[in-house]
Amino acid sequence: MQTMAIIGAQWGDEGKGKITDYFAKQFDYVVRFQGGNNAGHTIYVEGKKTVLHLIPSGILNPECVSVIGHGVVLDPEVFKVEVEALIDKGVQVSNKNLIVSQHCNVITSYHKLLDQMRDSKGSQKIGTTGKGIGPTYEDRCARKGIKLIDLFNKETLKTKLTRLLKEKEVLFKELYSVKYSSIDEEVEKLFELGKYLFQFSGDTFSELDQALSKNKKVLYEGAQGVLLDLDYGTYPFVTSSNTSVGGIYTGAGIPGHHLDEVLGIFKAYTTRVGEGPFPTELHDQLGVDIQTKGHEFGATTGRTRRVGWLDLPLLRYVKRSSNLTAIALTKLDVLEEMGALKVCTHYEFEGKKIEISYPGLDLSKVKPVYKEVSGFTTVFKDGEISPEVQSYLDMIENEAGITVKMIAYGPNRSELKILKH
Ligand code: GDP
Ligand code: IMO
Ligand code: MG
């Protein structure tokens, strides 16, 4: 296998970081292609925790080159802090194993402020991470974004920042009455950060193009999940990038090649952070128990993650919309000793039976229909997958028409089992 994508198959936090880290040793490159530091990817190696927001989850494997592609929105301050924290922990990080596209759009303090103001004082609350993701992608689309390469020239930076602030300061002054940094302060800060980032910056498209033509192996690491995709997700309660497989083609490039495997990462139940519809959400004590046992608190904002049952209409949809070739089912251990489990097999909506979701279906109006399945006290029995867990896996495979290629049963790197090669 030369190329593989790791795609979140729900609303994020499925365990992508752990699975990416596991596979990284088999690849020459691990590439982030969208999103920014709204992501929080957690990896445990021998009990030691690392949370990555911006740096690809291949970084703990020194042989593998981590790449931040041009589709990522880059907060240079967060980048520096994250690299320094990794180095402090003894992780090998240099421009030999970390390259950032100089074509990335940069998140400035104005983007962060606008994001936070809108979500707290605006007319529609999305429950964003407040990291400036949406406003930065907006400026990219409006063709006035600041690219990483712009940080290397003070004059260019000042001209572009001044243009960028012109409209935003109307909002800061008139609509939100909030203080914001002066152009000179912002230029100084970004220019200094640019000096630091220069050593890591490069032409990642050509790097990957050449690597692929030399038969190097490339792993693409998605952030968020398909249901948060700007086009395929539960709009408007989504993030501002294409988190589905399509984001790879625009956000990093896969020149002249196809993806050999698209592995969807799927929790054995469902979680969601922030606002938006969630058909199988649990509002009872069981939901709290799963949330507590699964440590369902955001890796980026610390917010509580909402919890619900596994949702097959959404899995079938995500499989189709991102061309998943298989799934990795994570957090099975969390369901141990939770009693009988429920699985949503289909929805009822306007008198119709819906077996597969679709873009624009108003998930706040569907009625989830469940079937009850046997719970389990242990994932493994006598070293083998217990019969109840096996029947849970068989049910998912049959109902969604997809192979469960691997399972995870704990946060540590080693706590996973490949079922099918
Ligand atoms: P990501 O954003 O998809 O990388 O996922 P997060 O790191 O935000 O959230 C997943 C959480 O579950 C992290 O705390 C992981 O350490 C943890 N985790 C991953 N896989 C498993 C698993 O199989 N069992 C348990 N109990 N925890 C897991
Ligand atoms: P990882 O990669 C879970 C959610 C936010 C909010 C919505 C929009 O760790 O799975 P944004 O700040 O992106 O404009 O927020 O998207 N969100 C995530 N939820 N996991 C993530 O990333 C997320 N990144 C953004 O909570 O609902
Ligand atoms: Mg996360």
Written description of the protein model:
There is one protein chain. The chain folds into three domains: 3-101 and 200-261, Adenylosuccinate Synthetase, subunit A, domain 1 (Adenylosuccinate Synthetase, Chain A, domain 1, 3-Layer(aba) Sandwich); 105-196, Adenylosuccinate Synthetase, subunit A, domain 2, CATH 1.10.300.10; 266-418, Adenylosuccinate Synthetase, subunit A, domain 3 (Adenylosuccinate Synthetase, Chain A, domain 3, Alpha-Beta Complex), CATH 3.90.170.10. 31% of the residues lie in helices and 21% in strands. It has helices at 16-24, 76-88, 109-121, 133-141, 154-175, 183-198, 204-213, 246-251, 285-293, 312-321, 387-400; strands at residues 3-8, 29-32, 41-45, 48-52, 65-68, 73-74, 98-101, 105-106, 201-202, 218-221, 261-267, 270-272, 306-308, 310-311, 326-330, 341-349, 352-354, 367-373, 380-381, 384-385, 404-408, 416-418. Helix 3 (109-121) packs across helix 4 (133-141) and helix 5 packs across helix 6 (183-198). It is globular. The structure holds guanosine-5'-diphosphate, 6-O-phosphoryl inosine monophosphate and magnesium ion. Residues 12-13, 39-41, 299 line the site of magnesium ion (MG).
